């Protein structure tokens, strides 16, 4: 497996992973009407726009056949100075649990460290216990709870914070 920066022709693959993961991960957590409205086309537009904004980007994980099996996106976290937000992390369902997510998290953490950030955060939807367990196992601490807004759909969410980036660089 190789992790590398995203390029435009990766958008279709990450849009599929993103859409499929939202529809399964958040089933029973977010309203079905919202989840049904997430389409591949909408996700392609979202991610193409996302990666072309200043200070935002993503890394993809590719397997030995150069197939994209996961991605992680980042942007500055507006609430804290020198904090990078791990904005999205999605792994192809058939390979989840194999350490790909951890490698992507560490890649974003190293990117943050190498680009002058001092902290890293991630937002999670309450009820996505598996994600919360992964991040807290990797030393993220609760920072604050808030109501997120997914295109008009409110969600009880939390921000987790890595106060120090050393864990990603010196391990």
Tags for this model:
alpha+beta, seven-stranded mixed beta sheet, GCN5-related N-acetyltransferase, transferase, Acyl_CoA_acyltransferase, Aminopeptidase, globular, single chain, 7 strands, GNAT_dom, 171 residues
How would you portray this structure in words?
It comes from Pelosinus fermentans B4. Residues 1-166 form the N-acetyltransferase domain. Keywords: Transferase. Helices cover 35% and strands 32% of the residues. With 171 residues, it is of the alpha+beta class. It has one domain (2-169): Gcn5-related N-acetyltransferase (GNAT) (Aminopeptidase, 3-Layer(aba) Sandwich). It has a seven-stranded mixed sheet with strand order 1-2-3-4-5-7-6. Helix 4 links the parallel strand 4 and strand 5.
The rounded distance between the terminal residues' Cα atoms is 19 Å
Q: Low-confidence parts, pLDDT < 50 over ≥5 residues?
A: none
CATH topology: Aminopeptidase
CATH superfamily: Gcn5-related N-acetyltransferase (GNAT)
Instruction: Please describe the biggest sheet, giving its number of strands, its sense, and whether it closes into a barrel.
Output: 7 strands, mixed
Counting helices, strands and paired strands, the structural category is alpha+beta
Helix content: 25-40%
- The coarse silhouette is globular
Number of strands: 7
The top-level CATH class is Alpha Beta
CATH architecture: 3-Layer(aba) Sandwich
Strand content: 25-35%
Total count of domains: 1
What is the residue-averaged pLDDT? Answer: 90
Number of helices: 6
Report the radius of gyration as a whole number of Å. Answer: 15 Å
| Strand arrangement in the largest pleated sheet | 1-2-3-4-5-7-6
Order of helices and strands: EHHHEEEHEHEEH
Pfam families: Acetyltransf_1
Protein name: GCN5-related N-acetyltransferase
GO molecular function, one term: acyltransferase activity, transferring groups other than amino-acyl groups
Domain N-acetyltransferase: 1-166
């Amino acid at each position: 497996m190789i992790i590398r920066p995203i390029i435009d022709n990766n958008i279709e693959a990450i849009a599929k992973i993103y859409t499929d993961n939202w529809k399964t991960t958040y089933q029973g957590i977010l309203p079905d009407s919202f989840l049904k409205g997430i389409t591949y086309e909408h996700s392609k537009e979202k991610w193409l726009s996302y990666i072309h904004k200043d200070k935002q980007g993503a890394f993809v994980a590719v397997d030995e056949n150069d197939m994209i099996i996961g991605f992680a996106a980042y942007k500055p976290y507006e609430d804290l100075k020198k904090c990078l937000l791990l904005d999205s992390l999605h792994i192809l369902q058939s390979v989840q649990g194999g350490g790909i997510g951890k490698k992507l998290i560490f890649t974003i953490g190293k990117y943050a460290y190498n680009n002058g950030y001092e902290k890293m955060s991630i937002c999670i939807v309450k009820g996505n216990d598996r994600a919360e367990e992964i991040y807290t196992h990797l030393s993220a601490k609760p920072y604050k709870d808030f109501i997120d807004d997914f295109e008009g759909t409110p969600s009880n969410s939390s921000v987790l914070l890595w106060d120090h980036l050393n864990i990603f660089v010196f391990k």
